[in-house]
Amino acid sequence: MIRMVLAGVLLLSFFLPWFSVSSLLGNLNISGFKLVDYLTSELALFISSIGLIFYVLYLIPIFAVVTLVKKGDKKWSRITGIVTFLLAIFVALIAKDGAVLLSFLSFGGYLTLLSSLGLIITSFMEDETATTPTAKAS
After folding, report:
1. How many CA atoms lie within 13 A of 1 on its CB side?
2. pLDDT at 49
C-alpha cells in the first residue's frame, strides 16, 4: 500500500515545479514535464543530437504508472525508484550550473527525490501480509 502511495506522489511530483530559477522575467518554476522542453530547446541551439537524451525523463511518469498498475510490486517499485532517483540527480547536476543543489530545487524536486528514495527503501522491506502469522488448523 505504501509503495502505491509513493508511486502516486512520484507521478504527481513530475508535474510540480522541480526548479525555481530567477531570470529577467521573474522567477521561473520548471516542472519535470516542462523541463524536457526547456532543456531540449536550450540545447538545440548548440548540439541537436544530445538534446534528445532528455526525453528519457518521460520514463519517470511511465514507471510510476506501471508501479501503480502492478499494485506496488516490489520489483517495479525498486526499478522505478532507482531509475527516477538517478535521472533526477543527473538532471539536477546538469541544470544546477555550479550552484548548490538545494538552493534552486523546488518542492516538486524534493518530492521526486524523497518518493523515489521511499520506493527504493520500501521495496526491500517485507510486505505486511507476509509478516502476519497464520493460524494453524488443529
Report:
1. 2
2. 58
- Residue 135 C-beta-side C-alpha neighbours within 13 Å: 2
The answer to whether the pTM exceeds 0.85 is no
What are the contacts of 18-26 at 24+ separation with CB within 8 A? Answer: 18/88, 18/91, 18/105, 18/106, 18/108, 18/109, 18/112, 19/95, 19/104, 19/105, 19/106, 19/109, 20/104, 20/105, 20/106, 21/104
Dihedral sign for Cα 102, 125, 60, 6, please: negative
Grid cell, residue 43, equals 540545447
User: Which residues face 27 on adjacent strands?
Assistant: 22
